[in-house]
Amino acid sequence: MQSLETWLGARGSMLALALDAQRDIICEHVAHKLATNYPDLCPNLPAEDPELSQQIMFQQTPQRFHTMLLAALRFRTLAIVEREYRWLWGIVQRFGVERSHLLQQVHWYFEAARTFASLSLEDLAWLRALESAIEQIVLTITSVPPTSVQPPHPSYPRLSHSA
């Protein structure tokens, strides 16, 4: 039996095309699940700021996951997924997002993909393996406490406002 990496190399681009053809319905399905199941998630997002509202978060989160997954499939590497989750884990916790939320979104995405994308039985089986691999990445990354995120220090001298 071939490895997941071998399958990604052989079928990753084709799977990306199949998933992208159903992007809207997959992402809408996941956005609806997020909004329905987690109505209290990220309540601190300011409703008056259209770029940071809870509703926008529910809509954009599945879109970002979809885009990340397509990149991983097209470049044939899960390192993209790992780096994205390492980056975001330290940030999303500040807004009440927990490991279970991330895992549930992954599950809902792949559930929708299996439902809406036209895939062969073999690709469906590999899609389950891909889901499992991404869940393992999330479990591994979220088991380590995030490092304190410090704002970057500018490489230029700061201007003094004293008169």
Low-confidence stretches: 149-163
- Strand proportion: under 5%
Main pleated-sheet profile: none
Shape: globular
Measure the end-to-end span: 73 Å
Secondary structure: number of strands: 0
Organism: Roseiflexus castenholzii (strain DSM 13941 / HLO8)
Protein name: Globin-sensor domain-containing protein
In words, what does this structure look like?
The structure is a single chain. By secondary structure, the protein is an all-alpha fold. The chain has helices spanning 4-21, 23-37, 54-75, 79-92, 99-116, 121-142. The protein has a domain at 4-23 and 64-142. The protein is built from six helices and no strands.
SSE inventory with pairings:
Blueprint: H1 4-21, H2 23-37, H3 54-75, H4 79-92, H5 99-116, H6 121-142
Protein name: Globin-sensor domain-containing protein
TL;DR of this structure?
The chain is mainly α. It is 67% helix and 0% strand. This is Globin-sensor domain-containing protein.
Summary keywords:
single chain; 163 residues; mainly alpha; disordered C terminus
